[in-house]
Design goal:
The protein is an alpha+beta fold and 322 residues long. It has 2 domains: 241 residues, no CATH class; 32 residues, no CATH class. The protein contains 6 helices and 10 strands, in the order ααββββαββαββαββα. The strands form 3 sheets. Strands 1, 3, 4, 5, 6 and 8 form a 6-stranded antiparallel beta sheet that branches. InterPro entries: Gti1/Pac2.
């Protein structure tokens, strides 16, 4: 695997066979795209290309308006679970397709709403209640801001990788490709997309065009990822625990100064992304209650001035006799 020519095996993908373990792997692929070693995806996948999605496929695409040469959202024609956070990534499990019964029920609900808009329709099947697809894929996503030229607005890039079952243990990693292993990621090129987690959930669509919402807060706390920089040194065999243990934060990764893929990666926690559980929800960031005016120890506002004799005479003149 000493040449990028193998990428031609899946010309519709940025890379045909690669497993991403953490944010640094993603940054290496991003840098390869920036240097022109790997292609940036600038169009939506065709129906045929969607059917050809296989484990190991990796796609890098730019979020931008179509007229600007980017994609507004990523579509692959499949149904996915809500996102879960693990390590440096968001994960989605493939769900079964819409059944004929569901399609009939959906048509019946529409007809019922037309006849009686005020009738309470039966509850549709929720995304989280839909069974997982046997032998389905798991989608792995990460996003970053790319700073290309000083003074220009950063570009928003996303990476989407697919794998299935436990075959990620057999997929190549960046160290297995010479043209990736020798890439050095410069400091300041890729910065965190933290703060755009909710937005990132809106650029992924399922088969019916419904946007996949980020719902990592709906799931229990996950233990630290075994393949994140916290616990992984220079080894290349550490992989996710399972495809069902989907998930991760989307990018509070700080780009290190310079690192080579072939160099051992430090095991310190400084390169790890913060857990979502450590981020205070915005709704809880309310100011503490406080009196409108400062008060004295007696409870009387400190800026209150006693009434003068003239004030008291004026008030007495307004009193009405009963």
């Amino acid at each position: 695997m000493s040449s990028p020519c193998s990428v031609d095996a899946a010309s519709h993908a940025t890379h045909p066979a690669l497993h991403l373990r953490d944010a640094r792997d993603a940054h290496v692929v991003f840098e390869a795209v920036r240097l022109g070693v790997l292609p940036l995806i600038t169009r939506r996948l065709t129906a045929n290309e969607r059917e050809q999605l296989v484990s190991g496929n990796v796609f890098v695409w730019e979020e931008a308006e179509h007229k600007q040469g980017g994609l507004e959202r990523w579509t692959d024609g499949r149904r996915w679970s809500q996102s879960r956070m693990r390590g440096d990534y968001l994960f989605y499990e493939e769900k079964i397709e819409t059944t004929p019964e569901e399609k009939e029920a959906k048509a019946a609900r529409r007809a019922r709403r037309t006849l009686d808009p005020f009738a309470a329709p039966p509850a549709p099947i929720r995304r989280q209640d839909r069974p997982s697809k046997p032998d389905g894929l798991t989608k792995q996503t990460y996003s970053t801001h790319v700073h290309t030229r000083r003074g220009e607005s950063p570009r928003k890039w996303h990476i989407v990788a697919y794998f299935s079952g436990d075959d990620y243990t057999r997929l190549p990693v960046v160290e297995n490709y010479e043209y990736l292993r020798n890439i050095r990621v410069p400091e300041g090129i890729f910065t965190s997309a933290k703060g755009n987690i909710a937005r990132f959930g809106h650029v992924l669509e399922d088969a019916d065009g419904h946007e996949s919402s980020h719902a990592g807060m709906d799931y229990p706390e996950w233990p630290p990822s075994p393949w994140s920089p916290v616990s992984r040194g220079a080894t290349t065999t550490d992989r996710p625990m399972s495809s069902s243990s989907s998930s991760s934060s989307s990018g509070a990764q700080r780009t290190p100064s310079h690192y080579s893929v072939g160099q051992p990666r430090p095991g310190s926690s400084s390169g790890a992304l913060p857990r979502l559980s450590t981020v205070v929800p915005v709704g809880l960031l309310t100011p503490p209650s406080s009196p409108m005016y400062p008060t004295s120890p007696s409870g009387v506002p400190s800026n209150y001035q006693p009434l003068t004799a003239e004030d008291r005479r004026a008030l007495s003149s307004f009193r009405l006799g009963l």
